[in-house]
Amino acid sequence: MPDFNALFDQWASSYDDTVYGKNHEYAEVFENYTKILDKISTQVEDKKSGTVIEIGVGTGNLSELLTKKGFHVIGIEPSSEMRKAAKVKIPSLEILDGHFLSLPLKQKVDAFVASYAFHHLTYAEKIESVKLMDGLLKPDGKIVIADTMFESKEYKLKLIEKVKADRAFNLLKDLYTEYYELIEDLIQIFRAQGYTYEIEKMNSYVWILTAQKN
Ligand SMILES: C[S@@+](CC[C@H](N)C(=O)[O-])C[C@H]1O[C@@H](n2cnc3c(N)ncnc32)[C@H](O)[C@@H]1O
């Protein structure tokens, strides 16, 4: 059971205000949010005839986009309030109670996608999660992760200084406490499982990592 359930249950009703720019403290983290979701959908375009699993669906913005584009999506989300919010947005969405380390899937799938969610796992948990997803992917399957990650320790330190100067104290706390990785460390997890990867910067915080098993 993820540690963050209470926080996300509470955040569910106002979460969309944050991602669509009404929370100034987080504006840079969610800059280009719609573009980020769209880019994820492009990365799995070749999986349209298969099944795409979104983990950490939140209020359902990415699943909604994928559904509208004609993908068969199954959502997995540990927070009951987030599951309710997503279900209101996309009544047809199959959404399951689960999380990165407990994937309630009976069959192999074509892709896993996750936006702004993977950082809730420690590094050891990320390794475990990638192994789990890998075991549930069809040959040629993809894993697409959009999240805050850093090109270097120096970059992260500079960002922390800026956030301090901006007095964005909630974001500052996140930067100290959440499990954001260096890009190189994250890539290493996928490399170790035999994946090739592409990576693209989407704003000052978020990159999209697309990993494929060839
Ligand atoms: C910041 S929200 C992102 C929601 C959505 N993906 C988006 O891009 O707007 C993070 C989501 O991840 C979920 N979450 C937290 N820990 C998780 C875990 N261990 N496994 C899967 N989802 C998790 C939260 O409940 C929340 O809905």
TrEMBL record:
Residue stretches making up the Methyltransferase type domain: 54-145
GO MF term set: S-adenosylmethionine-dependent methyltransferase activity
Enzyme class of the recorded protein, top EC level: transferase
UniProt keyword rRNA-binding, yes or no: no
UniProt cross-references to InterPro entries, sorted A to Z: Methyltransf_11, SAM-dependent_MTases_sf, Uncharacterised_MeTfrase_YrrT
Domain of life where this protein originates: Bacteria
Pfam families in UniProt: Methyltransf_11
Cited SUPFAM superfamilies: S-adenosyl-L-methionine-dependent methyltransferases (SSF53335)
GO biological process: methylation
HAMAP family: Methyltr_YrrT
UniProt record similarity statement: Belongs to the methyltransferase superfamily. YrrT family.
Protein name: Uncharacterized methyltransferase GND95_03385
Taxonomic placement: Bacteria, Bacillati, Bacillota, Clostridia, Lachnospirales
